[in-house]
Each structure stands twice: as C-alpha cells, then as structure tokens.
Amino acid sequence: MGRDTRSGGIFSPTRCCEVKYAGRMSHLRSSSIRQMLKMASERDLISFAGGLPDASLFPTETLAELSQKIIRDYGRTALQYAPTEGLPALREKVAFWLRGKGLEIQEDQVLITQGSQQGIDLLSKLFLESGVGLLAENPSYLGALQCFRFFEARLYAAALDEEGMTLEALNRAVKRKPRLAYLMPNFQNPTSVYYSLARRKAVTDILAHRGIFMVEDDPYGELIYEGSCLPPLWQFYEGVDKVYLGTFSKTIVPGLRIAYLVGNEGLVRQLALIKQATDLHTNNLGQWIVNSFLEEGLLPAHIELIRDRYRRKRDIMAQSMARHFPSWIRYRIPQGGMFFWVKAPSMLDPMELLQACLKRGVSFVLGSDFYLESPSDSSYLRLNFTSVEEDRIETGISVIGEEMRNLTQGEIRRGQ
Ligand SMILES: Cc1ncc(COP(=O)(O)O)c(C=O)c1O
Fold this sequence. Notes:
The chain is an alpha/beta fold.
C-alpha cells in the first residue's frame, strides 16, 4: 500500500487508509446480492426487493404543518440539545400507547432511540462480546444479524414453523447457554411468521426459566390485515430480563428515525449511558414532530389507512401470484407485515432467477441472505409488497412467473 501518484492521494484496493482497522471490521460484509440490486436500482425497476414503506402514504402535509409550528413556536427548545433518554412528553405517550397493548410500564422505562436499529446496537454493546451466545430465529432480520456479528456474538439458530420458533429447535439451542434471545413474534422479517398464542407462552416460559434475556423486536405488529394482534411476548415472560423494541418507521415515516426501547428502569439507565457515548440523544426535532403527531391523536387513523392500502396490495400480489406462478411454487399469504416468503423447488436456482428477472427490470431478494449459519437454505425468495405501485404488481409478478417456467423447462421435460 502507498501513495498512488496517478490520483494524487493515498490509494489501496484493500484498505482506504494506512492505519489498521479494528479486528471486528472483518465481521461486516456487504452482500454481493445487495450490491447487484443497488446497481440495478439505478434503472426504473419494479422492486420487490427492499423493505420500504409506501412513500405515497407518508403524511407529508401534516408533518410539514407540525414542523413549521414547532420551529416557529418552540424552536429554541426543539432545536436545542435534549435529554439522552428522550423527550419526556414522548416517553409518556409511548408508555401510554404500550399500556394499551398490555405492557404495564411507566415512562421511565422508555428510552427513545434513533430507529429500533439503534436499540439493537445499544443492546449489543451492553451484552455482547467475543464468544457470547445469542439465540435467534433462523432466518432472521439481516440488520440485527449484522450488528450481532459485528460484536462477535456466537449465533445459535432456531428454526421456525408456521406458529413461530419450534420448541424442539429452541430446546436444543438453549442447551448451548445463550445470553440473549432475539425474537420477532409479529410478521417476522423475512418469513412473515406470526407466533400463535400457545407458542408465545411456551417460548417465553422456556426463556424465562433458563434466565435468557429476551429481546422482542416488533416493527410490524401494527401492520395486521385481519383481526387484532395477539399480546406481546413481554406479557408472558415472567421476570425483568426482557426488552421490547418498537418504532414509528412503519407507522409514520422511517426518515425521522424515531423508535423506542422498553425495559426495566435500571437497564434503561445503563443503555442511556451507552447512548450518551454514541450520539448524546435522538434527533430532537424528530421527537417533537412525532410527539405532536401523537398529541393530535392522528396515529390510529393513519395506521388504519396504511392497513387498508397494504391489505389491498397484499391481495393484488396474492392474486397475481396465483395467476402467474407455476403451481409447484410454495408460499403462504401473510396476515400482516410486508413480505411474501416463497419457496422454490430444487430444480430452480433462485440466483439464476434473480439474474434473469433483473435483465427484465424486476428485482427481489434471495432468502439465503437471512440465514444465521452457512450453508444457508438457498431455496427461498423474499418479495416485498408494500413499496411497489399497485398497477405494477401484476406486471412484475408475471415476469417472475415466466422466468420460473423458462428456467425449469428442461428439468420438467427430463422429469416427464
Ligand atoms: C425486524 C426489524 N427490526 C428493526 C428494523 C429497523 O427499524 P428502524 O427503522 O426503526 O430502525 C427493521 C427494519 O426494517 C426490521 O425489519
């Protein structure tokens, strides 16, 4: 490595500066598939790939009015530094909202975070170090896995069925004595699995009995399209070794980065210390805006609007899949959340399918990215249905269906 006189600066194909990075950097990998999608996204793609909310539902007019009023009338406070734990009025409202879901908590148990991704990061900083075990659903949310790997946790995978984490897998994994368990009971990312009531009770019983700290991540619980959501795991876990993570990213907007973590007071104090060392506090203006949105009582109606739109998109997607996918493709219609989790048979290589679809302007992500252990299961695709425009869903799905048939024609003929 050295100076590259052609460009006039320090240049290395493998390092971008002369000083060695921390060893943990080797655990952060950028997935090649994501890079491929990023390049492709520069075209006008029909993208089932991301996990983005529908931006046409963002309450932009309301947020503009609220922001203007806040800056004009309260700017000297709302634009000042703020307490690390979060805006007191917002903590209070979050506690009130969660009490409505059966979490018997007080405002000093709430820590306002910069997205729930920050909650995951703070918990990792508090609990994880090289070799510490963490139990998670397999597959699981990629952003959390990246964070856990960065802090050098040992990941113990527990498989899912249609009711949640299987008790067989859980019992096997807890024998390895993990310190933490990371769970998404509502419309899990990427599978959209929704834990049954019985499974909620059984899983939390085992975790509490073994003294395993439970991290419940619930960004999708409000996005339920039939019925009302089952009680959070928090309610069934007996003891204080638990946190609940929630976010306004899917119910208001992700760009403000306002989310919350709930735990016992002592834990929240520890996490606040770490947060102080990380970013001092969450974006204050964003907290004021979300607080006003809640104060005006706008959230319930907005959630209803989102549910209606997403339910319709999910139904269009399901009808399109039934019409265009070969009958040997397996999937379940999700009751909530943002994704279809689609299983391809062994004769179809999802990577080849993705390449063929990208050439025709359609993208999705490969399920293999979300697995904890290698070799991962590479027979799944994750299709997001919330961000594609309604009138482009069927076109995109028909392209995927056609390419599924094109790529398997030879195999099917051979099998006949
Ligand atoms: C399961 C899960 N947890 C956390 C997050 C991060 O959400 P936030 O925008 O609140 O950081 C996501 C984002 O998609 C997610 O799917």
